[in-house]
Amino acid sequence: MRGFSQFTSLIGVMCRIVLVYAHDSEGGIGKGGSLPWRIPQDLRRFREITTEHGEESVVVMGRETWESLPEAHRPLRGRVNVVLSRDAGRAAGIEASGAVCVGSIGEAMERFGGSAPELFVIGGAEVYAAVLSEHGGACCRIMATEVRGDFGCDRFFDPADVMGRGKFASAFVKSAAEWQEGGDGVDYRFVEYSRAM
Description:
CATH superfamily: Dihydrofolate Reductase, subunit A
Largest sheet: 9 strands, mixed
Radius of gyration: 16 Å
Number of strands: 11
Low-confidence stretches: 1-14
Number of helices: 8
Structural class: alpha/beta
């Protein structure tokens, strides 16, 4: 596979990666294969972000994230669903369900980078970390929802831990909305990290 610097120069700004996720105060992003909170406003924002390019919208996720989606919502409507899996046996079933199966983030970029304005990466923790450690230069935005409290999660992700705090702070600019009350009295706020110019 081509080196990332060669790949970036080949596609220029046509392929940009956006990470989309929610986390609690401890950096937890999931528990037992699902979200431990229900915030309708966050689900609405997720849908708005990941469909903002209409039929050209592409969501990329790991196999476990794909399997955690309710069957009635697989694939996510109005978006090309790309699932990362190296298991050929599972790939056939994933594709039969209406998704595209690829072996890596790099393969997803090669396959969709020329046609999709952005690739929306929606989980899980290992996939987010792989994006930042292997293809961080292509990540232009991180769209997060901060959920106040500790929800006893068993899956964690913090982009600053992956990139290194100093490097992350110099690479991205944070803007945060005011805290609001969501479903079940849970406090949340929307945060966007944009690539520093």
